[in-house]
Amino acid sequence: MSENRPIHCGDGKDDPAGATPGGKKLTRREILSAGLRGAGLLGAAGLAGMAGSSSAAGDVVWQLDPYKCIQCGNCATYCVLTPSAVRCVHAFDVCAYCKPCFGFFDMVSAKPDAGAENQLCPVGAITRTYVTDVYYQYTIDESLCIGCGKCVKGCATFGNGSLFLQIRHDLCVNCNHCAIAAACPTGAFRRVSRKNPYILKTKDHAT
Amino acid sequence: MNRRLLTIAMILCFGAAAYAVERFPPPDLPAGYQKPVVPNLPPRSEAMQWLDAALLAGAICLSAWLSIRLRSRAGLIVLTAACVAYFGFYRKGCVCPVGSVQNVAAALADPTYAVPAAVALFFCLPLILTLLFGRTFCGAVCPLGAIQELVLVRPIKVPAWLEHSLGLLPWVYLILAALLAATDVTFIICQYDPFVAFFRRSGNNLMMIVSFCWLAISLFVSRGYCRFFCPYGALLRIFSRISWKRVAITPSICVKCRLCADACPYGAIRPPDDAKLSDLVLARRRLIAMIVLLPMLVFAGAWACSLLREPLARLNGIVELSEQIRREDAGLASVRTAASEIYRASGRSVSDLHAQARAIRGKFTARFSIASMPVELRLEVLAGGLAGLVFGLKLAQMSVRRRREDWAPDPARCFSCGRCFKYCPVLPDGKVQELLE
Fold first, then answer.
1. Taking Cα atoms as reference points, which of B196, B194, B200 lies closest to residue B214?
2. Contacts of A99 in chain B (CB under 8 A)
3. Bridge partners, B369 (sequence order)
4. Domain edges within chain B
5. Which of residues 348-387 of B touch A (CB under 8 A)?
6. CB atoms within 10 A of CB B357
7. B408 in A contact zone (CB under 8 Å)
8. Which of A105, A205, B2, B24 has the most other CB atoms within 10 Å of its CB?
9. Torsions phi, psi of A2, nearest 5?
């Protein structure tokens, strides 16, 4: 096998069968190949080490910043999951418990009663419950929510902005590059620490 | 009451920014009222990612053991199915080593970009193990390759010229993906992932169509994605060329029956080449010509790609939106797009958007200093030069001719699938199996 070695060797390829003749002296090609192999090993490990060293702070997941969100509706359509892993969350501390909730009612319709035709939510995921004569509680059924942000827009435009969108991490598959992040027109999506994976609206922020 | 609240709302909302405003004071809720608590469930634990990386390394080593030592095609099929089930359907095809190339490219361009440790491992483990055992990762572990391996029903033969020309596509794709990731434009490999929508059985229309097409193609073109598209495969190809161990078709000697070549659906088994001295001299002359041609190809690639800066930047959603709004404001666009309407209605300033787009365009120029000398490097020109270099090296490689005695797999193209083992009539003791019937 090896007496028929080619005259020239320049491409660093080893014998395809990989059968090094036992006890034979190493050929030039084999030495070259081993050298390249070592360089490749170092290169791959070094590249990964360089890339990975910046993540020493800890692991990250995707989240959307509700203060940058403009409710464009991309969250509902661009997520690789159907329905989207983005759902509406209600910050009860920020909510004013409005009787005519602008996140709940479709204000185009004349009658503010809780009939389905008067609701803004296309899937009926918001439940309106009586608290007092002037205050009503709005609860989101996350299992129904599709993350379209219609209620969020209503609440942000006319109310306190207590309804907001969040990636739900029990649903999110944490894609290498979030498909919604790529489509988000305001760059509201960013990587956050896995230990603190939500950007929630709280009383202090509502200024 | 209703009307009063509505009036207050109207008064308050005009002139105020459309978000993050507390317009109404917190209500006096009755004493017995309990505010509901919304649970915020944590993501999948970090330890599971380490488990994934360990499973990946284990599966590649197992694949190497099955293909190099045990020579068991059946074992490889079982491993292939297991990897499709775990890395594909259970882990939903993400993170995969193919896409991790982009994270590494992004991290090299921007040192503040955090690559999760698991992604860094997913990037380097298959590369290192391919240096040791050949493309055993592609053979049975990669869920994208594994699914193609399993659905192949009737492979069609791809002519050699087409195989060689299409074989350049992975390089183009790799360079393009690295450029777009480094400039923060998009992660194109993930955007056009061939099977991830199938693994998740959901996804946007584009991904579903892409998945469906690739599934249909893989019924007849054996591993079409791996051979003619996979950007990570391009790296694995060179690494596999110099691997320490690799698959051998025959357990002892080759009897040149060429049964293995007929069995290989990837056309990866090369016939013996008894090149005469005159052939070798001719080949060497052609090689020299190609090497002379190399700088010209590099320059041509760099020049061609220098024209692509703007079209490539436009692949980014923010840049595209900013351009659209600019066109609309200049009266060049007759209709406003939905995205532009939404952005304008959001109350955010247009100049803010233009600034973001400028920042992304700016990333195409890398600024660093060598020995306190400021250097400006246009990344698209670098990418074009690299593409030209790859073309030139491919031409040079094709003009290299070597004597080969036996039928043997091309280490760059062999996926270590093990189909050839079954067809090789040679027994481990060197005797030839009697062919029945």
1. B194
2. 1-2, 5
3. B374
4. 48-272+404-423, 279-392
5. 348, 353, 356
6. 22
7. yes
8. A105
9. -85, -15
Nearest by Cα to B100 from B88, B108, B112, B111: B108
CB B94 within 8 A of CB A176: yes
Task: Write out the H or E segment, with its range, that includes residue B296.
Answer: helix B277-306
pLDDT tens digits for chain B (437 residues)? 455 555 554 444 443 444 445 678 878 888 888 888 888 888 887 788 889 999 999 999 999 999 999 999 999 999 999 999 999 998 888 778 999 999 899 888 887 777 878 888 899 999 999 999 999 999 899 999 999 999 999 999 889 899 989 999 999 999 999 999 998 888 899 888 899 888 888 777 888 899 999 999 999 999 999 999 999 999 999 999 999 998 999 888 888 888 899 899 998 999 998 888 888 999 999 999 999 999 999 999 999 999 999 999 998 888 988 999 999 999 888 888 888 888 888 778 889 889 989 998 998 988 888 888 888 889 999 999 999 999 999 999 888 888 888 898 999 999 999 999 988 888 888 888 775 54
Nearest CB to B94 within list A49, A173, A183? A173
List of chain A residues whose C-beta atoms are within 8 Å of the C-beta of residue B20: 67, 156, 161, 205-207
Contacts of A73 in chain B (CB under 8 A): 342
CB contact under 8 A, A80 and B25: no
